[in-house]
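As described in the Methods, two query proteins were run sequentially through the folding procedure within a single session, without resetting any intermediate state between them. The first query and its resulting structure tokens are shown here.
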Amino acid sequence: MNLQKWWFFVSIATAALGGGCAVEIRDYSSSGSGGQAGAGGQGGQGGQGGQPGCVNPGAEGCPCAADGTCNPGLSCKEGTCIDAFPHCGNDSIDEGETCDDGNKVDEDGCSSTCQIEAVCLVNHIGGDPSVVSSIRVDQDGTMTLADLRVLDGSHTIGLWPFRQRAAARCGRRVYFTLQTSDSIEAVEVTPTGKLLPVGATKSVPDVAGLLCDEKNNVLFVMSHTDTVDVRAYSIGPSGELVDVDHKTLIFPVGSLDTVAFTMHPQQPAFYVFGGSTSGINPAENKVVGAFVRYAADGKMTVDQPSVTADTGEGFFHATFLSTDGKFMGFTGYSGGGFANYELAEAGNIPTGVSPTYSGAGFSNGYDAIALDGDLFYHSHSDANVSACRFTPGEKATCLTATPATGGLNRLYLAYGGKMLIAASGYGGAIDTFALGDDKTAPNKLATFPLDKTESFHASALVPCFHAP
């Protein structure tokens, strides 16, 4: 053997015997035994034990089933079933989760895949005393009373309950107004739907409505007499309201009878409209709108007036935006008018643009919810709920008319748009409707009568769970 080959083999032997080379030592159960150590060297590492065989394809860590599927909560990746929600159960809401209660147990309101299993509709019912109730609405449409709280103050609803749409959800808290005492109150909704009082009383007269930016913890309060006052409050850790900003909007439309407002779906901004209900002639029912932008701390910048809109026949009293922010609709209370505008830019109201009208299909409508850009739902005081659609340059058309328990409903979409909830302003009941695959044919599931038969004041939808 020549000198070069001899040195090569000596180098290999030295390394194997541990000459200056650190070797990580691990403890492997059922592993092979390591090689014996030479003088001054560490023994070779044993082989790792084999993985136990999988007797249940589709289980976590096992091969996927023959059809490529895995057990619930798992997903098939490269032929092996892995946890589809690896962070579920860590008590923090992560991407793909709608809740996380710190465990992976079903039937406790937050499922084993960290998805909400129920919602609660919180209703403010007027009277003396005033009452707040929490109704749990399950995915099959059934409803259960979760809690009922009698308030210290009273609330006179009056003849026109739709003029005070004063309830706003801010996280797990719901803020509402007591009209008689000119105060804003709040309750916190526990995970099981129980109602806890929040020390958030604020004296604000003539409240016409509330809007909340949950991301920034800012509550906007609209009140009106001959003008519209918009107040912004930051929400403290315990729910207390701290004054941030105050703007006064002047609407030159004569007697200011109706105020409507809607949050922009894509921008930190909202619209406020003021109108007169002096008659059923469309020419007498013009409204003027303001576009209110705000910063994260609630400081407001107002573009006003930004439009004088023709809302169609009847008394103006409601407005809404499509989910893409490109369409704006107005409804009239008496006479059945509905007018829709196509916005030139998302976040701006066109001026001098004639709306597209629709007629009697919108008779006496109260509220509307836009879905998927051009599809929305509309309620009527004649106790019908309709799925409607509007397209650029065409009249909005109602595709269906499903009877509801009462009229002047507040409408809510739940469970990924598969359910419509209608809370009746006239009739004292809540209806649930299943929506078909095309979401245009509401099918009534159940009705829940409220404790009081008179019109209730306002409501808000909050995630809630089954009672333990």
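Immediately afterward, the second query was submitted; its sequence and tokens are:
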Amino acid sequence: MCDLAAVSGLSESSTSHALRLLRAHRVVSVRRRGRVAYYRLDDAHVRMLLDLAFAHTEHTDAIHPEGRCGGDDGQLRS
């Protein structure tokens, strides 16, 4: 969980809460080995949506190689 917290920028408490909700709704499943927990997507519909989102991102990057509007600061501008 601390790896997920670090990558997401959330606190460990927030990450734990989000994972608990995702498990309760059967979006993810968990496998434990000692003190380490391994999470994986457990919902085919969510996997399909993520696959489509990644495919769309790759398609968008190919069409708009400059990335976001406005520069490298991550801010969107019109």
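Helices lie at 2-8, 12-24, 44-63. We note this only descriptively and draw no conclusion about the first query from it.
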